[in-house]
Every structure is written in structure tokens, then in C-alpha cells.
User: Which sequence fits this backbone?
């Protein structure tokens, strides 16, 4: 639901907010937390942990592309490339279908001409007898 940058910014803000409470039970080191955010759709959600707990962050290219302040990164570029490739493949399939339909139509027209020519030839043969 959020880009990596957005998750890090949110985690930093939560860390700072928790520090401002000066609660005596909070550790002096980084505060461990897990924030679960539900989006408007059941398919839209995010789990945000304190930055120190995330050693190898996963990257969702879709979320990266949605970040209006995000910098183009490899994940977003890969997502855009995959999307462009899928669109190109769809267009190629449509063009191939149209080309096949055009070929079938041309073959049908050629067959119709041949049939008309054969019919005209048969009519001429009838007249010559």
C-alpha cells in the first residue's frame, strides 16, 4: 500500500512520536513496533515495522509507482517495463488476429471471384453449345 520511502518515513515518525511520550518502560535503544494499516479495499493493507527491524525489505513495484514523491527506482522501472511489455504483447496478438482475419477475408474474396469466374465460364459454355 505504501512505497518503501513512505514506510520508512512513517516508521521514523512513529519512533519519534513514541519517544516524545518519555514513557519509562520504553527502551533506550530503538523502539520495536508493528503498525498494521488497512486500506479502503480488503486487498489494500500495509504492515510497517520500526526501521531497524527491516533488514531486507521487500519491494512492491506497484506501491513504488504510486508514490508521488518517490524517485524512479529499479522496482518501479521493472514494473513499468513489464506493463509496457504486456501491453505490447496484447497489441501484437490483436494485430495478429486482425491480420489473420484479413487473410481469411482475402482468401474468401479470391474463392468468391473464382466461383463467379467458373460460373461465368459455365454460362458461356452453355451459350456456345
Assistant:
Amino acid at each position: 500500500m505504501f512505497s518503501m520511502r513512505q514506510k520508512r518515513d512513517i516508521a521514523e515518525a512513529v519512533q519519534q512520536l513514541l519517544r516524545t511520550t518519555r514513557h519509562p518502560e520504553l527502551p533506550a535503544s530503538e523502539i520495536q513496533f508493528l503498525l498494521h494499516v488497512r486500506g479502503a479495499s480488503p486487498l489494500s493493507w500495509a504492515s510497517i515495522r520500526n526501521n531497524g527491524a527491516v533488514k531486507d525489505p521487500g519491494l512492491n513495484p506497484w506501491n513504488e509507482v504510486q508514490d508521488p514523491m518517490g524517485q524512479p527506482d529499479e522496482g518501479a522501472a521493472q514494473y513499468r517495463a513489464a506493463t509496457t511489455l504486456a501491453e505490447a504483447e496484447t497489441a501484437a496478438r490483436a494485430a495478429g488476429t486482425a491480420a489473420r482475419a484479413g487473410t481469411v477475408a482475402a482468401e474468401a474474396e479470391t474463392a468468391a471471384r473464382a466461383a463467379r469466374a467458373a460460373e461465368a465460364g459455365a454460362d458461356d459454355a452453355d451459350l456456345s453449345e
Summary: The chain is about 60% helix and 10% strand.
